[in-house]
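Lab notes, practical 5.
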Amino acid sequence: MDAAALHDQSVVCDCHCDTLLRVLDGGMHLGKRLTEGHVDLPRLKEGGVTSQVFAVFIDDRYLPAGAAKQTLRLIDVLYRELEDNPETLSLALRAADVEGAKASGKVAAILGAEGAEALEGDLALLRSYYRLGLRLLTLTWSRRNQVGDGVFEARSLGGLTTFGVEVVRECNRLGILLDVSHLSPAGVSDVLDTSAVPVIASHSNAHAVVAHPRNLTDKQLSTIAVKGGLICVTFVPQFVAESGHATLEAVLDHLDHIVRVVGVEHVGLGSDFDGFGPASTLGLEDVSCLPNVTAGLAARGYTDAAVRSILGTNFLRVFREAVG
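Output from the prediction step:
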């Protein structure tokens, strides 16, 4: 099939962006096409995106006591955008909502939290966020929090705390997809040992290709896949190329490597758009460029079925198993 037609027919899921912060702090609105930043609704539609995970990230200035309030501000931002753009944006609470968005030509917004600081050490807040639509939890950013150590604290060899284990189990019970990107190696192991359902790494690349601490070793890739999970290739220039001068082809090199290690059924996409600075990955300058991934995969000999799985059906499988 022609690459453009294949992309148009596929369910396309991007498993991480930080655009809600730009809406809150920068005064932008998702419904207006902009020339700066990476994500807005017109460009999501141009990029053929079916579902976008919108992350709630808590900056250091709101820690420790202001985390829950800032989390609610960012959730409110998403709800206001849903109200302002009912014809193009819908909230996904389960896998069927993503499929429904594809059928109706909308973008399905999935609410995620990037770091359990939002919980302030209280499972009641996790349950409340679930009722507000939270369906993905990145357990840590790269720092330490109450659930465990982030990857930049790996020197300690620390993994999940006792509270962190409780959070994993409660996420399993509620139906919140767990995300191990940013987590320390010991924390990744602890999550995989504790979770009863598959987990994802929402925006991480292959350490064997670029030895950045945020990228995953082949052993980590394999362990995530053995448990049925997903590794979502990211476009952050420093994670893509050691020089930081990243290209689409370099992103595809990471994807090829991960496929060789774990198989095509365990790979997805997690751009981290609006989560890094003005330097961009050539060929993936913003979300409207996602059809270039499809064209690049086709040029490298991936079958139509394999391309569809990488673009979105792999994520739908894991999302359905973990969330419903």
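Observations recorded by the TA: Strands lie at 13-17, 51-57, 89-91, 107-114, 134-138, 177-179, 200-201, 230-233, 267-269. The two ends are 31 Å apart (CA to CA).
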